[in-house]
Fold:
Amino acid sequence: MEISSRTFVFFFFSLCLLSSTSLSIENFHQAFPIVEPAPSHTKLQLSREGLEAISRITTPISAVAVIGPYRSGKSFLLNQLLSLSCYEGFGVGHMRDTKTKGIWVWGTPLELEIDGVKTSVIYLDTEGFESVGKSNVYDDRIFALATVMSSVLIYNLPETIREADISRLSFAVELAEEFYGRVKGEDVAFEPSKLLWLIQRDFLQGKSVKQMVDEALRHVPNEDGNKNIDQVNQIRDSLAIMGDNSTAFSLPQPHLMRTKLCDLKDEDLDSTYVARRDQLKKLVASIIRPKIVQGKTLNGKEFISFLEQILDALNKGEIPSTGSLVEVFNKDIVERCVKLYNERMVRLRLPMSEESLQSSHETAHNEAIKAFDAQHFGRQHAKKSVDQLDEQMQEVYKNYILANEYQSSKLCEKLYTKCEDDMDHLQALRLPSMAKFNAGFVYCNQTFEQQCVGPSKQNYEQRLTKMMGKSRSLFIKEYNNRLFNWLVGFSLVMVVVGRFIIKFILLEMAAWILFIFLETYTRMFWTAEALYYNPVWHFIVGTWENVVYSPVLDLDRWAIPIVCIIALCVLYWRCYGKRKHGARWLLPMYNNQKNVRNRERSE
Structure:
């Protein structure tokens, strides 16, 4: 009983713990962290509260992010854009350390209708860079993540634009060079965020904020060839090219007492500031567009999935890079292209020649590369994805090479074994025939040549040539001896047949002549080897070959059936032929003397 009560208590506390962790947020009218610094404070990690606030959004999302140095008024600016006080909106800090850690999101999106589509606009507050106790890598990751996430990127700068502020845009420039140069209408990785230069300054000294930005982006003389200046000048050139995707706006200081701003109402703020702030709201609303990723808008859950991909890519390596982002967006494309390559290669019928396989590989490879070129993201950094694609296709190709070698070896071995069996069969012919052996020899060669393909062909060709050469030599060596013995036996059989069975004197005489020639004449005048070179022997051999084997009749196969048929015919004649028709022959036959005498007496 005691054990069961303990079990119940444990179950109850576990249930309470699970229910407490799964409780959803009830009040979304507040800011939530969406990305937090990892314990090492060099990488980033996702926060559950912010993800829950975003996941409930079902309409297309657009994000407005504010970036800039710490203590530059980013949180206060966001509260002003959202028409919120400091006490209900983003936290505003007046101390020397930064208030916002990571990236925060306002839990209640602003609903706007953009191009006839209801869009949820979320506002993001980012941790200021250049604060004490942080690494530059951490600042770069915050900057990079905000650049990728946002549809509108507000670069909040106090007073002026410094060299360091331009250098921080290097990631945005690389993104522009890698992703934004694609043709409109195609599936793009993600559309560029609109860059809004926001200069908080009271006096512009007779210049417009646009002129101020243009001056900051002009080339800096570099007569000494300083690499850092060259790098910043390259960023300036790229930002100038991105001019149609950026705008500039100036905002005066809201009040001289900056530490009291949270306690002041609009009527207490500078009227010029209030007017410019309202203009800024309209400007931001006019340039907001839904976040487009790979050709489609994102709802809350899709935006979170996109964020997880980006964060994983940016956390790779020691520093965030556009190359890691390119790999993320090209990963699916690489997989599709490898699948396309596989679909082309699987159509091949193995085995095939190495040249044909190589040609098919190159055709499928070029088709996959062409498909990748039409779909891939990134320009310079896409080379790594191309290398990955090529490496994966080469691995598949290696498997096809091995499969082709195996299938080729299997097929050629089968053909070789069949030829070997055919040669053994030809060696054991009942009626030796050079013509039949040559026909089988040629047929085996032709069949092997036509059907054996692939990398194993050359090796098996050499084995086949050696095997068939030995078989041919052995057959020729035995052919004359076997034919001689067979003809001797055949002549004796014909003597018996002509004398006692059909009693055909001419057949018997021919058989005796052949027997005497083979056994007596040849032994008296020629050696056995000399016989094989004699024209008479050649005539006999030629006649034998014509009788034994031809394309129409193969006596080695049909000899027994033919002999049986002839034997039946002779038997029929012996039993019934004489009674019905008498023994009238045109050729000389053996006559029965007793029958002759009986006929004379009767007369």
User: Anything to note?
Assistant: The two ends are 141 Å apart (CA to CA).
